[in-house]
Structure formats: structure tokens, C-alpha cells
Amino acid sequence: MLTKTENRPAAWANFIAGEWEDKIDVRDFIQKNYTPYEGNGDFLTPATAATTTLWNSVMEGIKEENRTKAPLKIDADIVSGINSHEAGYIDQSLETIVGLQTDEPLKRAIMPYGGIRMVIDSCKIYNEPLNPSVEKAFTEYRKTHTKVFLMFIHLIFVAAGNLAF
Q1: How many CB atoms lie within 10 A of CB 138?
Q2: How confident is the model over 16-27, as pLDDT tens digits?
Q3: How far is CA 101 from the centre of its chain?
Q4: Cβ-Cβ contacts under 8 Å for 64 (sequence gap 6 or more)
Q5: How many domains would you assign to the chain?
Q6: pLDDT given for residue 146 in this prediction
Q7: Mind telling me which InterPro entries this protein's record contains (predicted)?
């Protein structure tokens, strides 16, 4: 821990001193060192030709989705995860960052950890059959984010001494 008489690390040179130096106090650090930016965006450079081309390509897909009132594609077989899909690109020759959610532009991933009913209903709305093994896993074996809360209800009754739950 640093005392007020010790030298401050060079990285802290332009920060205003405070409680944050002695303990974890994010609020104190922000209150003392945050300066709102009230200027405009003139310092930003315009989009590159590659970015504009990529954006226009995405907008064509979005126009199609707006026309049909449906996603271009839904991957109803693979549960979304950090490495569930291969690297996705809009146009790999123009891209410097790999970061699509799935392996194709505007292809929607399913996220049943947030609630399988929403995934089932979404697939039905868009006439996309949900992989039966995904549905079975999330209705019979896995607890979704929503179902985890049922445990809290039980614990509240136990804590209150009412074991009739």
C-alpha cells in the first residue's frame, strides 16, 4: 500500500490523489479524475472505404430482413457460446477484426441459457425447426437462467421455517 509520502507510480502521475490509492474505491477515483467530454466528433476520422463497403453490405441484409419481417437465417442446431461457431466474416478480404456472432452475416444464434421457451417460440414464429436434442437438453437436463431463480424461492421458504414448499 502506498502512503502519501511515497512516490506514486508513473502511471498515476496525472491522477488526483484520493482514497483510491489506499483501497479499492472506484467511486472515489472516478469522482476525482473523470472529466466529461463536451466537444463534438470533429476529431474522429471518416469511415474507411472498407468499412463503408462492409456497412453497405450489412444494410442490404437488413433491408431484406425488414422486407420479409424475419431473420435471414437462424442456426437452430448450435447453442451460442464463445467458440460455438467458426469465425464469421461479412467480407473477409476487407475485414481487420473477426467478430460476427455466428459464421455468417445476420445469421442468428440461439441462446437457450436465457430461457428455452423464448428460443422455442422464436423458432416457431419464423418456421425454423429447433434441433430436438437442444430442446430436450434445455427442458429436461439443463437449468436455464430463469429456472435457477426457482431455487431462491425454495430457500426463502426454508429460511422462513416453512418446509411445506
Answers
A1: 22
A2: 999 998 999 999
A3: 10
A4: 72
A5: 1
A6: 67
A7: Auton_GlycylRad_Cofactor (IPR050244), PFL_dom (IPR004184)
